[in-house]
Every structure is written in structure tokens, then in C-alpha cells.
Design goal:
LigD_PE_domain; 1 helix; single chain; DNA ligase D 3'-phosphoesterase domain-containing protein
Length: 159
């Protein structure tokens, strides 16, 4: 089963890297909050409705805005600590295995089974211009079984 990791990364601003194993690399998206937590960046209803119709995402009310990043090395599945070239530090938020339900150039649907989160992660590419941080995608999280956790709530970016 492929593995995933969600890392809190404090550079250049606080965000969470969502890493999904895909062959010899990790497909990566940057999110302003981890799945299952309120995100300050939510795609507007009009855009979300158009995306839902185009991608068959009925039942999803809102999408958090995330950005595709270049693929990362598999080592990040197990790594915590400083990032090379003074690019901050990463701390593990969650990790585990996932089952692919759908994976193509425009949509990823994966059932995650992690230490903190269990549920379905849906990522859908938005038909909007490229942003300087990467191509915009929408993220939806459908918990199927949130594990009880004594872990602290993640920090949220300021500003």
C-alpha cells in the first residue's frame, strides 16, 4: 500500500505539505491547514459548483484552496527536522497508508489511514490560471473515523 505524510512546514510561511507516494517520488500539495481543520483559503461557491459538476464531486460543500508543488523525495515520508538550504523545518502532523480510489491529471481521491486522520481526501485541479506558488487545486476532506488524539491543534498562519 502506498504511504502518505502531512508535514507542518514553517517556510516561507506556515503551511502543511500533503505528500502522497507515487512511484519513486511524492506528489505534493501545500495547504494553509491540514485536512480536517478550518482553512482560511476556501474556493468560492461558484467555482466549487463548476468543479463539482465537471469532476463528479456531488455532496462536497466547499473546497480548501491548495497548491501543487514539485515532487518531493520519498525520504520525507519519515523525515522531521531542518530542510536543506535554510528552508525552515518540517514536523510530522500525520502519516500512514492510503488506498487510491481515483488518480488522474485532474483529480486524486485517496482513502487515508493515518495515526490521526482516517477518511477520504479528494484533490481536484481547478481550471484557473497558474499561481506563482503552483497550480491551484481544491481539497475536500471526508472523515470516516477521526482517531482520538491528545496531540495539540496545529498552529494557524498569522495574517
Amino acid at each position: 500500500m502506498p504511504r502518505f505524510a502531512i508535514l507542518e512546514h514553517d517556510w516561507p510561511t506556515l503551511h502543511w505539505d500533503i505528500l502522497l507516494e507515487s512511484g519513486p517520488a511524492l506528489r505534493t500539495w501545500a495547504a494553509s491547514a491540514p485536512p480536517g481543520h478550518d482553512s482560511p483559503a476556501v474556493v468560492t461557491v461558484a467555482v466549487a459548483e463548476a468543479v463539482k459538476e465537471a469532476r463528479g464531486l456531488e455532496g462536497i460543500d466547499s473546497l480548501s484552496l491548495v497548491y501543487a508543488l514539485p515532487d518531493h523525495r520519498l525520504a520525507y515520508l519519515d523525515y522531521e527536522g531542518p530542510v536543506s538550504n535554510q528552508r525552515g523545518r518540517v514536523v510530522r502532523f500525520d502519516s500512514g497508508a492510503f488506498a487510491i480510489r481515483l488518480w488522474n491529471d485532474f483529480q486524486v481521491v485517496a482513502a487515508l489511514r493515518g495515526d490521526r486522520l482516517r477518511g477520504v481526501l479528494t484533490l481536484v485541479r481547478l481550471d484557473r490560471p497558474r499561481h506563482s506558488r503552483g497550480h491551484p487545486w481544491g481539497l475536500a476532506w471526508s472523515p470516516s473515523d477521526l482517531l482520538p488524539s491528545t496531540a495539540p491543534t496545529p498552529r494557524h498562519p498569522v495574517g
